């Protein structure tokens, strides 16, 4: 919202149909802060409401966050209406590359944090772990311990001691469980987790597995896949073997290698020895089917501006 307002725009903020109350509560805070009426307009509803906005002839810009299929629908609506500008922040299948010279404790802490937050329901979760062969057993065991510890902190998100809540709704729960059940039926090794937690709600224990489908498909849930690599070239090849390119992380004590690998990764943001982070000062967005356009930073501000060229003939004499 900040770039849009800084550029002098008014706008409509449509919430996700899965979490409308959060955005409504945000509206109360905006009123309390004294925002003028009509600057920020909060709207709730499902995809039909979003489609109406995307087709509306008086909307001149759409910034959409969601799935790749929904993003394509937004682009089509923009083309069919008034050719409004569109920026898209879509899916991700972000890799974490763990080299054998990495600080293992740091790599485990940050990669597991990146994946575990919001129970994997975040577009840049590090849901693909690529670990160098000679340290794979030790790293996998450490991640297993981290996941088992996370299970003890899962519960009612309204409680202060809860770190991890449920999946967003029944539909998402069933989707995640279908992936995990299918993996087991195909004989894929589930290293830890992957079961429903309790007999009520949509809680799923965080899973660590080895599976090609889960390796490439965005699940948007608590399932991380693990693969090994021999050398730097193979690590980069595996990391880029996806239709997405939102974020990546690299763990190594060799800064030169970290920067070299970061330059080769097809991702909008790369974290080195750190979980994937964003800030208002830096642009955020993806390569490939993770979308285009940027949020935040100078690039994010430009998304809400229109360039204009003005020519002046200064050689015209003044009238007397």
TrEMBL record:
The UniProt keywords, alphabetically, are: Oxidoreductase
Provide the top EC class: oxidoreductase
In the UniProt record, does the keyword Zinc occur? Answer: no
Which GO molecular function, any one, fits this protein according to its record?
aldehyde dehydrogenase (NAD+) activity
Q: Which reaction does it catalyse?
A: an aldehyde + NAD(+) + H2O = a carboxylate + NADH + 2 H(+)
Keyword check for Oxidoreductase, yes or no: yes
Q: Which residues form the active site?
A: 89
Gene3D superfamilies named among the record's database cross-references: Aldehyde Dehydrogenase, Chain A, domain 1, Aldehyde Dehydrogenase, Chain A, domain 2
Q: What EC designation does it have?
A: 1.2.1.3
Question: Region annotation Disordered: residue ranges?
Answer: 281-300
Against Pfam families, the record matches this protein to:
Aldedh
Q: Which first-to-last residue range defines the signal peptide?
A: none
Domain Aldehyde dehydrogenase as annotated: residue spans: 1-310
**Entry's family note:** Belongs to the aldehyde dehydrogenase family.
PANTHER family per the UniProt record, alphabetical: ALDEHYDE DEHYDROGENASE-RELATED
Q: What is this protein called?
A: aldehyde dehydrogenase (NAD(+))
What organism does this protein naturally occur in?
Cercospora berteroae
